[in-house]
Design a protein that fits this description.
This protein has 195 residues and is of the alpha/beta class. The chain has six helices and six strands, in the order H-E-E-H-E-H-E-H-E-H-E-H. The chain has a single domain, classed as Rossmann fold (3-Layer(aba) Sandwich).
Length: 195
């Protein structure tokens, strides 16, 4: 497990950035989903920081569209709609936000961005540890992806998430190299930015 963690970090860390000025102008950013609220009802800082990062990237003119990709499998849980509402509240026009309701896992989000939404290069928005894994998956699937790192949370608040990331990277290696896992759903093509 340690090998998979550091192999991902070594490969992807040069491809993820804290400063948007180091990123090329790109048509689409893929914003990865998480719950907007914690189990106790409080705000999820991972979510808030990702929304802020997406807004910063859009307002700087680095991207034209934001593809929000998240989980929508349960009736009362809809990450894409929550992200869309948060971005609109921050001033991003609704027509610049595209919803991917089947981004159940990071692998699904990366592959669907290419196969369903037609993007062979894009910027991924999440926290650094997540971006590294997402960019690794994307590059493995022939996608020219870079990452823009949202602010992380305090170590104490994010400890469980960091521990889950160790397992997530190990599972990712199994998915990519052993199981050859594909997304749960693909579906009809969606064209971004063309009427």
């Amino acid at each position: 497990m340690a090998y998979s963690y550091f192999a991902v970090e070594r490969f992807a860390s040069p491809l993820v950035f804290d400063d948007f000025k180091k990123l090329p102008h790109t048509k689409v950013a893929v914003l990865l989903g998480t719950s907007s609220n914690l189990a106790d009802g409080g705000k999820n800082q991972y979510f808030e920081n990702r929304m802020n990062a997406a807004t910063e990237l859009y307002e700087a003119g680095v991207v034209q569209y934001i593809l929000v990709s998240g989980d929508n499998r349960q009736r009362n849980y809809n990450e894409p709609v929550a992200m869309q509402a948060a971005l609109i509240k921050r001033g991003i026009p609704q027509e610049k936000i595209i919803l991917d309701y089947a981004g159940f896992r990071t692998l699904d989000s990366m592959v669907r961005a290419k196969e369903v939404f037609g993007q062979s290069n894009f910027i991924v928005i999440s926290q650094k540890f997540h971006n590294e894994r997402a960019v690794y998956i994307a590059r493995h699937r022939g996608i020219d992806a870079l990452g823009f790192n949202a602010l992380d949370v305090e170590i104490a608040a994010g400890f469980k998430t960091q521990m889950r990331e160790v397992l997530a990277r190990f599972k990712m290696m199994l998915d990519l190299y052993v199981l050859k896992t594909e997304p749960h759903f693909l579906g009809d093509k969606v064209v971004i930015g063309e009427k």
